Amino acid sequence: MKRIPVWLMLAALAVPAPGDEFTEEDLKRWKAEYMKVMERGEKLFHSPLGSNNVSCDQCHPNGANTHPETYPKFQKQLGKVATLREMINWCLQNPLEGKPLGLDSDEMIALEAYIHWERRGVPLAPGKH
User: Fold this and answer.
1) Residues with Cβ < 8 Å from 44, sequence gap 6 or more?
2) Handedness of CA 67, 108, 47, 34 (dihedral sign)
3) For the chain, which terminal residue's Cβ has fewer other Cβ atoms within 10 angstroms, N or C?
4) How many CB atoms sit inside 10 A of residue 105's CB?
């Protein structure tokens, strides 16, 4: 049996898998698209989304205390392990007295993008309270 040198095995690991090779143009475009969605989410977050003229930022200034990095986690308001999107809808329906968003709607994705953007750099900690 022929032995493969360790350096050769490590070099093979450093080669990107097919489909994981992105151009600088790809990365720029994707970042620009994300930022557009995030900025829309920021506007939504700071706008009244329910019937009582309350906005998300009145309870969650700049999305700072939403802790998206901890989802999914148990939420006593829902009585189950919930996703961030489910919790956003709970807030929309209860404190904001509004209608829930579709879980895959453009508005929901924008709100989620903004909330995650505000917490960028924080390590993931699913299930943490």
Assistant:
1) 56, 107, 110, 111, 114
2) positive
3) N
4) 12
List the helix and strand counts (H, then E) for the chain.
Answer: 4, 2
Q: How many C-beta atoms lie closer than 10 Å to residue 69's C-beta? A: 17
Whole-angstrom distance, CA of residue 106 vs CA of residue 72 = 21
Q: How confident is the model at residue 100 (pLDDT cuts 50, 70, 90)?
A: very high
The SS3 assignment for 21 reads coil
Interval 106-112 mean pLDDT: 98
Residue boundaries of the structural domains of the chain:
36-129
State how far the Cα of 90 lies from the Cα of 59, in Å rounded to an integer.
Answer: 13
What CATH homologous superfamily does 36-129 map to? Cytochrome c-like domain (1.10.760.10)
